[in-house]
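Lecture notes, continued. The same structure-token format from the folding unit now serves as the input rather than the output. Read the line below as a description of shape only.
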């Protein structure tokens, strides 16, 4: 019995050692190629871009609104406009603190969050990328199957380099 237990432990340990993090190898490959594709699509980093963004979460209604977002040349959200379907359609937000309160992100932040999910070996990861621009269009992450309401889901669309 002890010999069988030791063999099982040894097999488990060997399997753990042979797992080189390739659980998300395909996702890592997709991320890497799309980061390069987005850099070519967005052009010079000094230009910035505009996009539509919407988060789906158990959070305040304002943060779930669809937004038109302008990202400046330093990859910071410069302004946002609430789109139809949101709490206050047409409202423009430029104050940095108010923008922070809306939990808006940039494409680079999305790439960073996807990388973090891959590195941490999350419970569930599903990302769809734009075929032309390389930016993530749908990001769905369940960080831990034992915790409720900690999932991350958002969409990015209509990215236009400025």
């Amino acid at each position: 019995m002890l010999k069988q237990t030791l063999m099982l432990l040894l097999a488990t340990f060997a399997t753990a050692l042979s797992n080189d993090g390739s659980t998300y190898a395909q996702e890592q490959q997709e991320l890497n190629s799309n980061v390069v594709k987005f850099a070519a699509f967005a052009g010079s980093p000094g230009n910035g871009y505009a996009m539509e963004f919407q988060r789906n979460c158990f959070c305040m209604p304002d943060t779930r609104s669809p937004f038109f977002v302008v990202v400046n040349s330093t990859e910071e959200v410069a302004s946002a406009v609430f789109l139809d379907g949101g709490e206050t359609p047409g409202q423009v937000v430029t104050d940095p603190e108010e923008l922070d309160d809306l939990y808006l992100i940039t494409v680079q932040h999305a790439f960073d969050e996807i990388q973090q999910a891959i590195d941490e070996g999350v419970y569930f990861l599903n990302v769809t990328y734009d075929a032309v621009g390389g930016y993530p269009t749908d990001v769905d992450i369940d960080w831990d199957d034992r915790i409720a309401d900690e999932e991350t889901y958002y969409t990015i669309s209509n990215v236009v380099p400025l």
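Point for the exam: Residues 1-21 have pLDDT under 50 and may be disordered.
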